[in-house]
Amino acid sequence: MVASLTSWVWADGRWQDLRVDVAASPGFSFHMVGTRDPTVREAPNRIHAAFLASGFKWPGKRITVSFQPTRPWVLGSAMDLPIALGVLMASGQIPFRPGLTALGTLDLVGALSMADAERSAPPAASDSVFVYPKGAWWRPASPHWMALHSLREAIDYVRDGTLPDCSGEPARPEPLPPWPDLKLLPNHALVLGLAAAGRHPLFLIGPPGVGKTEFARAVHRLRRVTEPNLPWVEPASVLTGVQLLGAHGAFWAAGSGILFLDELGERPLKSLELLRKPMEELWSREGSLVPQTLGATNPCPCGYSGHPTIPCSCSESRKNQYVQRFSGPFLDRFQMGLVLNVSEGAEPVPWEELAFKMRRAQEQQRSRGPWLGNASLPLEALGQYANLTKSAQDVLHEWHRKSGFGLRTLHHTMRVARTVADWNARARVSADDVWTATQFQPMLLRPKVSTSGL
Asked: Which of 145, 181, 215, 442 could bond 203 through an S-S bridge, CB–CB 3.0 to 4.6 Å?
């Protein structure tokens, strides 16, 4: 008998589909094809001990395990659970359950764990049964997602739908730190809320010590209200393009979390331009797992251009050359831009108000489709759900005509305007929402030169 089930493997910077086929035939041996990963080839030893601890036995059969597609991926020990369930189904010890998806590592007493517990959840189909370790703490996408402690619980659930008794289990803690002591101007606090609510890539520019890193961490903290285990990746500025964007690079390691790129002005120009294509995946039709990119830079080589008390030592030409390192196509991959500076009138951030409006805005976004916020609306969905009023359309197109910016800038402005409307609990995007979105367009951060070629 052959039992087939699906699983997921983290490879090439994202979750990849994997089919696990297990065949049981007369004989007594174990063969594994489709992988050369030594970690997976140790699985029979762990599974055999886990079977004994769970009250099952290793079948006296010739067991063949196949992985499809065959790739030079590192599958890791997370294949223990799908192999174990496949062996039990193929040998007739538990009934075959079509459409089953499983992922998890087994120890010698049958406990389930996950090596990368903080990684973002795989995009498993919401209507399929997905069994995974409770330690992963992934938010279930549907009632069919079952977070379990052990192989015994997984077997009981697959066999007859028995759910584990969690009555004595303590409630999951919310490991959220206190709200940071941060003061911002009202419009800066609005950008903070909009970036978190819509997951918009954000470009920050300002002198040292003005709070660019704190602002980026505040976006992360605010998103953690609804995504407790949200990844945060802050790669060093000396990373090469391969280290930043390779198969196991920092960009893909952030999953659907936040990638914070500080000191963009000091990073190699080639690395910055290499970011352009991966960042486009955010609003692609495939809905890839792409992080929200937050970039930060000084305004000039000395860093103090625009500072109210420390004079800048750079000439205008040096300042323009420094900012012009960020090409129009590169800045166009961001959807919002903000100039931070030391200013009077900053007030404590109203965290509870921002969290309330963010939840409300995210509920509106989830009702439209499976995209990761308004930032990832593909073009056809943007046309369907932007829902601009006539006056908003007039304002948007007039602004776009006068600015001379490209179509991508227009589409990003529509995405941000949609978030502004959600933030204010409006079903339709108004002219005021469009004006707000245009004020934070990152292309405006470039030196005041002709924009006809952008």
From this structure: 442
**Looking at residues 26-47, what average pLDDT do you find?**
84
What tens digit of pLDDT does each residue of 162-200 get?
Answer: 766 654 444 454 467 889 999 999 999 999 999 999 999
Taking the C-alpha atoms of residue 24 and residue 83, their distance in angstroms, rounded to an integer, is: 12
In three state form, how does the secondary structure of the chain look? CEEEEEEEEEECCEEEEEEEEEEEECCCEEEEECCCCHHHHCHHHHHHHHHHHHCCCCCCCEEEEEEECCCCCCCCHHHHHHHHHHHHHHCCCCCCCCCCEECCEECCCCEEECCCCCCCCCCCCCCCCEEEEHHHCCCCCCCCEEEECEHHHHHHHHHHCCCCCCCCCCCCCCCCCCCCCCEECHHHHHHHHHHHHHCCCEEEECCCCCCHHHHHHHHHHHHCCCCCCCCEECCCCCCCHHHHHCCCCHHHHCCCCEEEECCHHHCCHHHHHHCHHHHHHHHCCCCCCCCEEEEEECCCCCCCCCCCCCCCCCCHHHHHHHHCCCCHHHHCCCCEEEECCCCCCCEECCHHHHHHHHHHHHHHHHCCCCCCCHHHCCHHHHHHHCCECHHHHHHHHHHHHHHCCCHHHHHHHHHHHHHHHHHCCCCCECHHHHHHHHHCCHHHHCCCCCCCCC
Instruction: Using alpha carbons, select from 79, 86, 76, 68 the residue that is nearest to residue 17.
Output: 68
Which region, left, alpha or beta, applies to residue 81 given φ > 0 means left and ψ of -120 to 50 means alpha? alpha
**CA 345, CA 185: separation in Å to the nearest integer?**
6
